[in-house]
Automatic annotation (TrEMBL):
Domain Thioredoxin: 4-87
Organism (species): Parvimonas micra
SUPFAM superfamilies in alphabetical order: Thioredoxin-like (SSF52833)
Position of the signal peptide: none
UniProt-listed CDD domains: TRX_family
Identification of the protein by name: Thioredoxin domain-containing protein
Length: 95
């Protein structure tokens, strides 16, 4: 999907990760006002090879892509609001 969509945001998470659940909920709410951004959740337990391919070794992790190229990578403790703001800037400047 990262190559098909102009903007995409992926959360790599784990069932045992409480912050992952909170981030997933916030991303779902945010995506409701950002239909131009494809959002997806990747369970690292069920998609070990995909996580490894993206060099994700822990959760939570957020990767954002603009036109198929990685634009944002946050792993561990980070501000999701900063991620949203950076993506908003990317969207604004792409118009």
């Amino acid at each position: 999907m990262k190559e098909k969509e102009k903007f995409s945001l992926f959360l790599f998470g784990s069932q045992a990760c409480a912050p992952c659940k909170a981030l997933k909920e916030k991303i779902t709410i945010w995506s409701g006002t950002h239909p131009q951004v494809f959002t997806g959740y990747v369970s690292i337990e069920n998609n070990i090879s995909l996580a490894a391919q993206e060099n994700i070794l822990g959760a939570p992790a957020v990767l954002a892509f603009v036109e198929g190229k990685e634009a944002i990578r946050k792993i561990g403790y980070f501000s999701l609001e900063e991620v949203f703001a950076a993506l908003d800037r990317c969207i604004l400047y792409s118009d």
